[in-house]
Amino acid sequence: MIKTLAIDLDSVLADVVVTWVNEYNSLKGSDIAKEDIVVWDIHTLLPITEIESNSIFSNVWIHRWKDIPPTQNNIGKIIEKLKTENFRISILTRREKITIPYVYNWLESKNIDCDDIIYIFDSTPKSIYPFDILIDDAPHNLEGVKFPKKAILFDQPWNRNFDWPIRINRLSDLFHIL
To answer: Do the Cβ atoms of 12 and 114 come closer than 8 Å?
Structure first.
């Protein structure tokens, strides 16, 4: 039976916070690293508003999408292998509409071939979308997932204090738990 894996884009496939931090440091003259981002809401940690934080994310996607590294080398091959193991790959991402073409360019540049991409533009919970398994780095996206669906937490510095039964460090870790 084919199962649908819904995979978040930001910080699960694309290590966007690495580039976000670089951009923030450039704008603010600071010297923070991704590992310093230990809470989900960056604006509660750094001297920045939520609007400014979101603006940096959008600008990174629009102007620096080529600088955004994948969370793991050969991420496209990992997605390809998941598909050969009877998984349907759905990218489920919340974002600004203006970033869509750059997301597409990034996915193409990393040879990520998914079955569909679902863009969320509002506060609709990810848990209501069609999938069997969700992989996400945001604890609030996992909390609404109810049986028979499953949720896997993708480890990042901002979710290390969140207790979740299934956590992976790399997308390739899925091969050991699925």
So the answer is: no
Which amino acid is located at 89 in the chain?
I
User: b/e per residue, 4-39, with b = 16+ CB within 10 A?
Assistant: bbbbbbbbbbbbbbbbbbbbbeeeeeeeeebeebee
pLDDT digit string, tens, across residues 46-81? 999 999 999 999 999 999 999 999 999 999 999 999
| pLDDT score, position 60 | 98
| One domain, residues 85 and 8 | yes
Q: Is residue 129 domain-shared with residue 43, that is, in the same domain?
A: no
What integer best gives the mean pLDDT of the chain?
97
Question: Domain range for residue 26?
Answer: 16-67
